[in-house]
Task: inverse folding
């Protein structure tokens, strides 16, 4: 009889995180070395608290829906394990659960925080001599994981953002009046999501006119000059900004305390698009719309990218193969072989190289003067948003898998 | 030689407004009585200012893209004509343009304000004895036009909202913590859009838990009690609210001046979801997310409903037939024949019955106690969001028609 495997989902949701879950299940099913397939409720919190579900006997029709369902159906967490040297209580509980369910393979789907968990658990297993293979499966819309060409979850978010920017741009310019639209997308430390809007430029409206990224320090006077120049060229302009824009001192604009208070000194509400909008409204254009593309950029399964969905499945499937080949303390990574045609391969890298680190957009891919990104970035991102998906639906609405947690 | 026709688009954009434009063009092409097909830039403003484009010679491949392109490609306006008794200047200019281009048919796609324009122009034509057939084509995501079962544009917005509520609900409940999500949708005077979220209830997450509509006066104490009761049943709840919620005196909540200021008396930013969120946060639940489904609900062609797209085309196509049959001063309306199977027909109604009026949700379709809508509403809306659409795309992103206005 083989050992059992356990799967957890962690960190912020994406639309393809359950595709990776299904990839893991399919990989485990096809291996004689793995007996039962368990899922942990709420990531590592479920392992800590012995909240484990048996996925082995789930019906096939239900399993197939996993691929087409956004947001962790096993639940998620943002739990950070203490350093091993400081406190072993959590580790003892976790490995008691591992022992109870005879877990020989642990797969953890998540971002750079989750890879910290993978790293620490692997270290502890080696310390106590518990035989287990622990593999991280990359997942984040932010695309900020080191060591992988890109992250499952990013392509779909990028597709949603580019499509939405095309649609918002067209919506905003229907009237015969000047308008500045400022569209805010996620990205506290990196501009991968904001830069994805460059794909919208192929539409005849040719937006966005300007893109502002956290990688480049933001200067208010430059910003106002650039908006003014654009408004001299055309009456209606669209600007995309990342939520995490920072000033030259590295402070988030929304936290800078400068120019972000009303005349009585009270902090104003809203994100960076709102702040920038106020600046423009005060001086350059009377009609300004600040639009936040919010939760939908990581939740809109209805705009999923086929390549992303497939790759999310494959990183899960490959993770099982790597584990069975003896790998542990590793993360599955995507290696790009070529752009034309788009070809990738899967490999593993040591999780220490990924945990708690952040990959930014290479500076040479950014055009700092024109406030846009270079063709290298376009070539990088273009294949990631491609691929059609036939989605299961019922009466015009999506058919999602059931949840394994309570609401 | 026949007379020419002119088409204008007016009011807020929808994702199917250009499908109606194409329907009109196809109707006009197939008639020997109509010679040239013109479009007015920015609705009636283009007629006033002689900004007319000739659509007759547009390429077929480009015309076909009209159907798959959101937001008025001819541009739009919110221009209200003066009363005829007060000021005829605008009328003289408009009819000078009509005469210049030999316009014998004028088609105006829009909502209840646009039907005011149709009504007034028709009256003036009769006064001066100008031979023209003027027909309104309904269009609004708000679904608030009197005399038609529903409005083209509504079904797609409803589908987007229901889908998004499903996705946002799932996104919000992944963690093992209490949460209240308050999702705000459009609708200043009617709850048609907010009520559409009832479709999301079929998902296993069974959200929304509560729906608040402008048709029913909002009471803060009742609201807090209802949220508290729901939180006693489950840890994670989702609430949908219309932006135009009003108190018992008919004042918009966001304008009420009550409870909407910070401790220093300054008005807070944000919409009604934010306001309600602050109330809940202060008393019932520490984790509250207020989410505005913004522009995308009327711009997201990527989530268009097939039935809506087809009906938008047909109201345009039928408008030409009605005009050729001699109708004028009328709006094309949709009449529902049956729900199972879903069957409709097209008719015309006098535009006086529509202009400047607002259709609300029938009170008997609303469950005031449970803060939801009744099965009658569900049966009404269910067919409107159905129908699949094959969308033209290129490298994973939509292929939209060109704009006939400058940005």
Result:
């Amino acid at each position: 009889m083989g050992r059992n495997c356990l799967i957890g989902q962690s960190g912020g949701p994406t639309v393809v995180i359950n595709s990776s879950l299904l990839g893991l299940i399919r990989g485990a099913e096809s291996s004689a070395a793995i007996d039962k397939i368990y899922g942990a409720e709420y990531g590592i919190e479920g392992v800590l608290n012995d909240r484990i579900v048996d996925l082995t006997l789930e019906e096939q029709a239900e399993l197939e829906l996993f691929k087409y369902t956004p947001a962790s159906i096993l639940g998620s967490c943002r739990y950070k394990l203490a350093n091993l040297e400081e406190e072993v209580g959590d580790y003892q509980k976790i490995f008691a659960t591992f022992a109870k369910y005879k877990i020989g393979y642990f797969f953890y789907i998540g971002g750079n925080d989750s890879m910290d968990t993978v790293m620490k658990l692997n270290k502890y297993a080696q310390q106590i001599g518990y035989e287990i293979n622990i593999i991280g499966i990359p997942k984040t819309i932010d695309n900020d994981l080191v060591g992988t060409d890109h992250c499952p979850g990013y392509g779909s978010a990028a597709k949603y953002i580019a499509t939405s920017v095309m649609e918002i741009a067209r919506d905003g310019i229907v009237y015969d009046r000047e308008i500045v639209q400022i569209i805010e997308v996620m990205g506290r430390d990196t501009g991968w999501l904001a830069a994805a809007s460059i794909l919208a430029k192929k539409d005849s409206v040719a937006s966005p006119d300007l893109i502002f990224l956290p990688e480049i320090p933001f200067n208010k006077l430059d910003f106002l000059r650039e908006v003014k120049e654009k408004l001299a060229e055309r009456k209606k302009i669209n600007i995309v900004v990342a939520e995490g824009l920072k000033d030259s001192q590295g402070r988030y604009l929304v936290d800078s305390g400068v120019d972000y208070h009303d005349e009585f000194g009270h902090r104003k509400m809203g994100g960076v698009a709102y702040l920038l909008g106020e600046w423009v409204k005060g001086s350059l254009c009377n009609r300004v719309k600040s639009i936040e593309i919010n939760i939908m950029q990581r939740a809109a399964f209805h705009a999923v990218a086929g390549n992303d969905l497939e790759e999310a499945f494959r990183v899960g499937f490959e993770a099982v193969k790597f584990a069975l080949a003896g790998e542990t303390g590793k993360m599955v990574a995507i290696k790009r072989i070529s752009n034309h045609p788009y070809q990738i391969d899967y490999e593993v890298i040591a999780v220490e190289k990924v945990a708690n680190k952040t990959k930014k957009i290479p500076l040479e891919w950014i055009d700092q003067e024109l406030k846009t990104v270079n063709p290298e970035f376009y070539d990088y991102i273009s294949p990631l948003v491609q691929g059609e998906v036939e989605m299961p639906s019922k009466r015009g609405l999506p058919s999602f898998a059931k949840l394994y947690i309570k609401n």
